[in-house]
User: Fold this.
Amino acid sequence: MKYILASMSPRRKEILSDMGLTFTVEPADIDENIGVKEPDMLVRELSLLKATHIAKKHTGEESLIIAADTVVALNGEILGKPSDEADAERMLKTLSGNTHSVYTGYCVSDTKTGKTVAKCAETKVTFRTLSDEEIDKYIAGGSPMDKAGAYGIQDEGGAFVSGTDGEFSNVVGLPKEALTKLLKEEFIFEGR
Assistant:
Protein backbone atom coordinates (compact mmCIF):
# COMPACT_ATOMS: atom_id res chain seq x y z
CA MET A 1 0.00 0.00 0.00
CA LYS A 2 1.27 3.46 -0.89
CA TYR A 3 0.54 6.35 1.49
CA ILE A 4 0.35 9.93 0.23
CA LEU A 5 0.22 12.93 2.56
CA ALA A 6 -1.72 15.76 0.94
CA SER A 7 0.18 18.44 2.89
CA MET A 8 3.55 20.16 2.99
CA SER A 9 3.31 20.68 6.76
CA PRO A 10 6.57 19.62 8.41
CA ARG A 11 4.62 18.87 11.58
CA ARG A 12 2.22 16.50 9.79
CA LYS A 13 5.16 14.79 8.07
CA GLU A 14 6.80 14.26 11.47
CA ILE A 15 3.61 12.78 12.98
CA LEU A 16 3.17 10.32 10.09
CA SER A 17 6.83 9.33 10.39
CA ASP A 18 6.33 8.78 14.14
CA MET A 19 3.45 6.45 13.25
CA GLY A 20 5.94 4.33 11.29
CA LEU A 21 4.39 5.05 7.89
CA THR A 22 6.41 5.38 4.71
CA PHE A 23 4.77 8.02 2.53
CA THR A 24 5.21 10.55 -0.23
CA VAL A 25 4.09 14.16 -0.09
CA GLU A 26 1.72 15.70 -2.62
CA PRO A 27 0.13 18.95 -1.40
CA ALA A 28 -3.43 19.71 -2.46
CA ASP A 29 -3.82 23.14 -4.01
CA ILE A 30 -7.49 23.90 -3.39
CA ASP A 31 -9.57 27.01 -2.76
CA GLU A 32 -10.09 27.02 1.01
CA ASN A 33 -12.76 29.75 0.95
CA ILE A 34 -15.74 27.40 0.98
CA GLY A 35 -18.13 29.52 3.06
CA VAL A 36 -18.47 27.13 6.02
CA LYS A 37 -18.53 28.99 9.36
CA GLU A 38 -18.56 26.17 11.96
CA PRO A 39 -14.94 25.24 12.71
CA ASP A 40 -15.50 21.48 13.04
CA MET A 41 -17.45 21.30 9.78
CA LEU A 42 -14.95 23.59 8.02
CA VAL A 43 -11.87 21.49 8.78
CA ARG A 44 -13.64 18.22 8.03
CA GLU A 45 -14.83 19.54 4.67
CA LEU A 46 -11.41 21.01 3.78
CA SER A 47 -9.64 17.75 4.62
CA LEU A 48 -12.17 15.91 2.45
CA LEU A 49 -11.63 18.32 -0.46
CA LYS A 50 -7.84 17.98 -0.17
CA ALA A 51 -7.97 14.17 -0.04
CA THR A 52 -10.35 13.81 -2.97
CA HIS A 53 -8.38 16.34 -5.03
CA ILE A 54 -5.23 14.21 -4.73
CA ALA A 55 -7.14 10.90 -4.95
CA LYS A 56 -8.45 11.84 -8.42
CA LYS A 57 -4.85 11.96 -9.67
CA HIS A 58 -4.25 8.40 -8.45
CA THR A 59 -7.54 6.67 -9.33
CA GLY A 60 -7.12 2.92 -9.67
CA GLU A 61 -3.78 2.84 -7.85
CA GLU A 62 -3.38 1.16 -4.49
CA SER A 63 -2.89 4.34 -2.48
CA LEU A 64 -4.27 5.85 0.68
CA ILE A 65 -4.44 9.64 0.65
CA ILE A 66 -4.18 11.30 4.06
CA ALA A 67 -5.25 14.94 4.30
CA ALA A 68 -5.81 17.33 7.19
CA ASP A 69 -6.75 20.90 8.02
CA THR A 70 -6.44 22.64 11.40
CA VAL A 71 -8.02 25.77 12.84
CA VAL A 72 -8.10 27.42 16.24
CA ALA A 73 -11.45 28.76 17.45
CA LEU A 74 -12.40 30.95 20.39
CA ASN A 75 -15.98 31.98 21.11
CA GLY A 76 -17.03 31.08 17.58
CA GLU A 77 -14.24 33.03 15.88
CA ILE A 78 -11.97 30.96 13.67
CA LEU A 79 -8.32 31.93 13.98
CA GLY A 80 -6.43 30.67 10.95
CA LYS A 81 -2.87 31.54 10.01
CA PRO A 82 -2.11 35.22 10.71
CA SER A 83 -1.95 37.54 7.70
CA ASP A 84 0.82 39.65 9.23
CA GLU A 85 2.55 40.41 12.55
CA ALA A 86 -0.26 42.70 13.73
CA ASP A 87 -2.77 39.91 13.11
CA ALA A 88 -0.55 37.45 15.03
CA GLU A 89 -0.40 39.91 17.94
CA ARG A 90 -4.21 40.29 17.90
CA MET A 91 -4.69 36.52 17.94
CA LEU A 92 -2.24 35.90 20.78
CA LYS A 93 -3.79 38.69 22.88
CA THR A 94 -7.23 37.16 22.21
CA LEU A 95 -6.05 33.71 23.33
CA SER A 96 -4.22 35.05 26.41
CA GLY A 97 -5.91 33.89 29.63
CA ASN A 98 -8.59 31.94 27.76
CA THR A 99 -9.47 28.38 26.74
CA HIS A 100 -9.86 27.78 23.02
CA SER A 101 -10.47 24.76 20.81
CA VAL A 102 -8.16 23.35 18.17
CA TYR A 103 -10.04 21.46 15.48
CA THR A 104 -8.30 19.21 12.98
CA GLY A 105 -10.24 17.65 10.17
CA TYR A 106 -8.55 14.52 8.88
CA CYS A 107 -9.50 12.40 5.92
CA VAL A 108 -8.35 9.12 4.40
CA SER A 109 -9.26 8.21 0.82
CA ASP A 110 -8.57 4.83 -0.80
CA THR A 111 -7.82 5.44 -4.48
CA LYS A 112 -8.50 1.79 -5.43
CA THR A 113 -11.94 1.40 -3.84
CA GLY A 114 -13.02 5.05 -3.61
CA LYS A 115 -13.79 4.64 0.09
CA THR A 116 -13.30 7.97 1.85
CA VAL A 117 -13.77 8.80 5.53
CA ALA A 118 -13.47 12.32 6.96
CA LYS A 119 -13.56 13.08 10.68
CA CYS A 120 -12.75 15.88 13.10
CA ALA A 121 -10.81 15.92 16.37
CA GLU A 122 -11.06 18.65 19.01
CA THR A 123 -8.58 19.53 21.74
CA LYS A 124 -9.21 22.27 24.27
CA VAL A 125 -6.15 24.41 25.07
CA THR A 126 -5.88 26.89 27.96
CA PHE A 127 -3.43 29.78 27.76
CA ARG A 128 -2.06 31.51 30.82
CA THR A 129 -2.12 35.31 30.75
CA LEU A 130 0.63 36.53 28.43
CA SER A 131 2.66 39.72 28.76
CA ASP A 132 3.10 42.10 25.81
CA GLU A 133 6.85 41.39 25.98
CA GLU A 134 6.32 37.63 25.61
CA ILE A 135 4.02 38.15 22.64
CA ASP A 136 6.41 40.58 20.94
CA LYS A 137 9.40 38.26 21.44
CA TYR A 138 7.50 35.24 20.07
CA ILE A 139 6.33 37.16 16.99
CA ALA A 140 9.84 38.54 16.38
CA GLY A 141 11.08 34.95 16.20
CA GLY A 142 8.79 34.33 13.20
CA SER A 143 7.18 31.15 14.53
CA PRO A 144 3.53 32.30 14.55
CA MET A 145 3.27 33.17 10.87
CA ASP A 146 2.57 29.69 9.46
CA LYS A 147 0.39 28.36 12.26
CA ALA A 148 -3.34 28.45 12.96
CA GLY A 149 -3.98 30.69 15.96
CA ALA A 150 -0.48 32.18 15.60
CA TYR A 151 1.25 29.68 17.88
CA GLY A 152 2.88 26.27 17.86
CA ILE A 153 2.40 24.15 20.96
CA GLN A 154 5.48 22.15 19.92
CA ASP A 155 7.77 25.22 19.89
CA GLU A 156 8.24 28.23 22.18
CA GLY A 157 4.46 28.77 22.06
CA GLY A 158 4.08 25.71 24.27
CA ALA A 159 5.20 27.89 27.19
CA PHE A 160 1.93 29.86 26.82
CA VAL A 161 -0.17 26.76 27.53
CA SER A 162 -1.31 26.01 31.08
CA GLY A 163 -3.40 22.96 30.18
CA THR A 164 -4.91 20.78 27.45
CA ASP A 165 -7.90 18.46 27.22
CA GLY A 166 -7.64 16.10 24.27
CA GLU A 167 -4.99 14.72 21.96
CA PHE A 168 -1.76 16.77 22.02
CA SER A 169 -0.76 15.86 18.44
CA ASN A 170 -4.09 17.28 17.26
CA VAL A 171 -2.88 20.72 18.35
CA VAL A 172 0.35 20.12 16.40
CA GLY A 173 -1.71 19.44 13.26
CA LEU A 174 -2.73 15.78 13.04
CA PRO A 175 -4.47 13.62 15.69
CA LYS A 176 -2.09 10.65 15.73
CA GLU A 177 -4.18 8.30 17.89
CA ALA A 178 -7.44 9.06 16.10
CA LEU A 179 -5.83 8.67 12.66
CA THR A 180 -4.18 5.37 13.66
CA LYS A 181 -7.55 4.09 14.89
CA LEU A 182 -9.26 5.13 11.64
CA LEU A 183 -6.58 3.45 9.51
CA LYS A 184 -6.75 0.22 11.56
CA GLU A 185 -10.56 0.03 11.61
CA GLU A 186 -11.44 1.23 8.10
CA PHE A 187 -8.36 0.90 5.88
CA ILE A 188 -4.88 -0.67 5.97
CA PHE A 189 -2.38 0.41 8.59
CA GLU A 190 1.23 -0.59 7.94
CA GLY A 191 2.81 1.46 10.72
CA ARG A 192 3.62 0.81 14.31
The chain has a mean pLDDT of 95. The beta strands are 2-5, 23-25, 63-74, 77-79, 99-110, 116-127, 161-165.
